[in-house]
Amino acid sequence: MRIGEVERKTKETAISLVIGLDGEEEIAVSTGLPFLDHMLNAFAKHGGFSLRVEAKGDLEVDAHHLVEDVGIVLGTAISEAVGDGRGIARFASVAIPMDEALAEVAIDVGGRGYLVFSGSFNAPATGGIDTSLFEHFFGSLCSRAGITAHIRFYGRNDHHMAEAIFKAFGVALGRAVAIDPRKTGVPSTKGTL
């Protein structure tokens, strides 16, 4: 199995994370932010990943450091699990609705981290998390994972929009890192991701 396992400890957060790309065996997420736990569970479930996250942070300050660092650690673990990318599909895109909300995610697991985040939330926070942190989370994840992602979304309910984004990202990532039996080498004309 392709597994990424990362531990990160700073003065602000302590995070232990394991992701498996080859099948949903276990999903256990505990960050101290129930809404983030819910989003990461949706990401893993619909992406077909196993995911274990134990995270603690300075939530008495706010959620910023914890959300950012979980994105950093998840991105690093994804990169570790993908390895040289031999045999992966590399590209995927998906549109996922959740009631009135829709999220579209296009992904390139090509070694270059970049995020385009297009859409806006209606309120400054949802589920106890500043809605601006979702873009920051995915930016941190993409940077560390070497993933280019375009995320577009709209809707009326902020919970629905956030959940559609996490589900869509999971589905697209699951498809992009899936092994394509037609591909035997690294999916790049350069010979490396």
Question: What does this 3D model show about the protein?
Answer:
This protein is of the alpha+beta class. It has helices spanning 34-47, 64-82, 132-145, 158-176; strands spanning 3-9, 13-20, 27-30, 50-57, 91-98, 101-108, 114-118, 125-126, 129-130, 148-154. Strands 1-2-4-3 form a four-stranded mixed β-sheet, with helices on one face. The longest helix is centred in the middle third of the chain and has 19 residues, at 64-82. The model has no long low-confidence stretch (mean pLDDT 95).
* Count of strand segments: 10
Report the average pLDDT across residues. Answer: 95
Strand-residue proportion: 25-35%
Tell me the helix content: 25-40%
CA(first)-CA(last) distance: 20 Å
Low-confidence stretches: none
Alpha-beta classification: alpha+beta
| Order of H and E elements | EEEHEHEEEEEHEH
Basic shape: globular
* Total count of helical runs of at least 4 residues: 4
Spatially, the strands of the biggest sheet line up as 1-2-4-3
